[in-house]
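Comment thread on ticket #2218

A.B. wrote:
> Attaching the input chain for the structure job we discussed in standup.
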Amino acid sequence: MESNPIENKHLETSAWRAEYDRALDELFKNPEGLTLDKILDVVLKQGILARIAPSDNDVKQSRIDQDKDVWSGNQEDKNLYAQLFYAVENSKEAMHLTADFSWINSVYAALGRIFRDEKMVRRFFNPVKNMDEHDSAKLIFFKKLQGRILDEYKKHGGENDLYVIPQGSCAIFHNIPVVIDGYNPNGTIRIKAESEEGHRNLYQYTGGLGLKPADIFSSDFKLVEK
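C.D. wrote:
> Ran it. Output below, let me know if you need it in another format.
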């Protein structure tokens, strides 16, 4: 009997989540020996990379067929880690579920398990002053995840010093005065032109999709003083 390709696609997606859940189950079996680094490693490798940049080509094609967010390259691509770095910045800003890159669900799956154990929360996270304990833990987790992603970026040949440009900063891009407007969930950088004419000219370079990390390290981009 001929197999149903739609059912197979859903099975492949379910298999990814089941595998990630099993990895988390195994990880949290021994809370005393658990470290934040171990959690970050599983979240990045099995929760994020296996989801948006699967190494199995059949699984990758299946996710593409389902219109899921999939990285066009592979897990060795330094540009993947550059965009993840800035995607995490969006999550730090938003502090809630907004991602086009649905990997953010994987982060919250791990955080949810940590939050079940208040002793673990206090062991892993020093509270940020004037913040709710769980919001504080999320912010710290995102920062540490960003550091882990930066390590992978450099490991795979990334030569730029990835940095966060504060929202409201002024810059010149292709001779167009622009303002940094924040970060998108997919790791691109939101900019807006300072004039209507600049906005029209900007579209030819960005297509309205924001800057890729490589753009801010190109000769066409320069930060300027206000």
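A.B. wrote:
> Thanks. Noting for the ticket: Strands lie at 170-173, 176-183, 189-193, 221-224.
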